[in-house]
Design a protein that fits this description.
Two copies of one chain form a homodimer. In chain A, helix 2 links the parallel strand 2 and strand 3. Chain A starts with a strand and ends in a 10-residue tail after the last helix. In chain A, helix 9 runs antiparallel to helix 10 and helix 11 runs antiparallel to helix 12. The first copy, chain A, has two domains: 163 residues, Rossmann fold (3-Layer(aba) Sandwich), CATH 3.40.50.720; 128 residues, Orthogonal Bundle (N-(1-d-carboxylethyl)-l-norvaline Dehydrogenase, domain 2). Chain A is built from 13 helices and nine strands. Chain A is an alpha/beta fold and 302 residues long. A six-stranded parallel sheet of chain A has the order 3-2-1-4-5-6, sandwiched between helices. At the A-B interface, strand 9, helix 8, helix 9, helix 10 and helix 11 of A face strand 9, helix 8, helix 9, helix 10 and helix 11 of B.
Chain lengths: 302, 302
């Protein structure tokens, strides 16, 4: 008989991730707020089984993955009414792959431990393309034995899977990742606007800086977006803004002042204020174009 | 008969650069403030010829390279008493490879044009290792014909040589480079301190973040320095601080606000205030360690 796994949250990321599990032979018990998505999936393959609530999922599957927008949704699904906790017990494992606050990950893990269940926080990076290509990076926090148990599932969805520490550590590392990406965007943006407004061809700036210590993955993959003014996501500003809030709160909790992240976070707020929350995060450069009253690329385009 | 080239400024960078030219067969007319260095060089090879002033160098060589600490020194050597300008005329070429203000590069170039001489600004990146291995990146501003004339010299000292625009453009791109490197250090530092103080092994943070969009050359090459507390230069804080001042001034001149660079520049000032101006620039992380009252690496070590 095929193994069964639960999957809650079939959004842009969750859809391809759940499909990889079904394609690998798992029976996947699904739940999501959009009823049409449920119908689509159950029509698509008999490996998908609809469940009505998170509790219902946990009754039918000992291992349940969640892929949700933010901390409140994970708390609600895990610990709320008809939540996972009402059906989980000894031998149950909750794997949360959402990006949420480390403190919430620990809160959920602790609550589930109270009924004998286990939990992992396992946020991902790599975006929609990484999810579709089963090439996600997965940073996992929790107990070693639980990570071993989850590994076959992770291997169906990701390529780089690293156990980074105890419960909450996965979310901490994801916050670190989002801090570094955002600030690297600021670095590239300030360099490009300084050079371009001074009259240097921004293509040459990318070429020269890419050959030395200044280079970054952000510049390699998103430099052309930044100078062309084409900002189709990719990864949306509003999601990165949410992740920077998580990082700032984690800094407050841990006692780590993050002055540069705080400033860059304010520019992400400004992007949303300017109506650019749905653009790719490489559109950070437009804030600098506004400040310098100078546009490198074409008119904004989503 | 061998071609002759002048070289003024035999510091950490200038020494190996001048030696590459002599090894390639050029007669190199040298001038520098340190008399011992002059003696060492003339004793080392008869390809080195001592000159007493910049004017003296320009009298003996149609092409003169300068490699000096900052804008005032370049202005003095080029335009001051017994400066290059007193002996330069039609057919003379001044190649300044120092890192200085774009405005000063343009000032020197314009003044030399007044006596019929030409000028290039050609700052480098790659540090002492790049100079020793003739692997510098050289970003060149000036006229195409002058760049062509200088190219055989550049090829003896560097690997990546890009003509980025008119006079001053080389210095602009160098300023962009230093902005991006400094802010990428801030990005890595905030990510590492956030994760490490929250209890995650910093080695794992480097491993996971290095595999994704967060990666940077700074993290690849200097991540281990940052978490080990070993900060032997490399590139000294005080020099990077100087370069950030140049970038901020260039931003002011051009009308480009650089808020993140401004903040990071203040942290470089703080490093100097703390007596760390002679450490490698990766020591930026120590400012965050101070702010968070938490040390990732060992005690500071130069």
């Amino acid at each position: 008989m095929a193994e069964t796994v639960g999957f809650i949250g079939l959004g842009i990321m969750g859809k391809p991730m759940a499909r990889h599990l079904a394609n690998a032979g798992y029976d996947v018990v699904i739940h999501t707020l959009n009823r049409e998505t449920i119908s689509t999936f159950t029509a698509e393959s008999n490996k998908f089984i609809a469940a009505s609530t998170p509790k219902d999922v946990a009754e039918r599957a000992k291992t349940v993955i969640t892929m949700l927008p933010d901390s409140p949704q994970v708390r609600e699904v895990a610990l709320g009414e008809n939540g996972l906790i009402e059906a989980m017990g000894e031998g149950s494992l909750h794997i949360d792959m959402s990006t949420i606050a480390p403190a919430t990950a620990i809160e959920v893990s602790t609550a589930l431990a109270g009924v004998g269940a286990h939990a992992l926080d396992a946020p991902v990076s790599g975006g929609e393309a990484g999810a579709v290509n089963a090439a996600l990076s997965i940073m996992v926090g929790g107990a070693e034995s639980d990570v071993e148990r989850a590994m076959p599932l992770f291997e169906k969805m990701g390529k780089t899977i690293v156990h980074v520490g105890a419960s909450g550590a996965g979310q901490v590392v994801k916050a670190c990742n989002q801090v570094m990406v955002a600030v690297n965007y600021a670095a590239m943006s300030e360099a490009l606007i300084l050079g371009a407004k001074a009259g240097v061809d921004p293509e040459k700036i990318l070429q020269v800086l890419g050959g030395g210590l200044a280079n970054s993955r952000v510049m390699e993959l998103k430099g052309q977006n930044a100078i062309s003014g084409k900002f189709a996501p990719g990864f949306r500003v509003d999601l990165h803004r949410k992740d920077l809030n998580i990082a700032m709160n984690a800094g407050k909790t841990t006692g780590v002042p993050l002055p540069v992240t705080a400033l860059v976070q304010q520019f992400f707020e400004a992007l949303t204020v300017a109506g650019r929350g749905d653009l790719d995060h490489s559109s950070l450069i437009t804030i600098y174009e506004d400040l310098a009253h100078y546009r490198i690329g074409q008119d904004l385009e989503a």
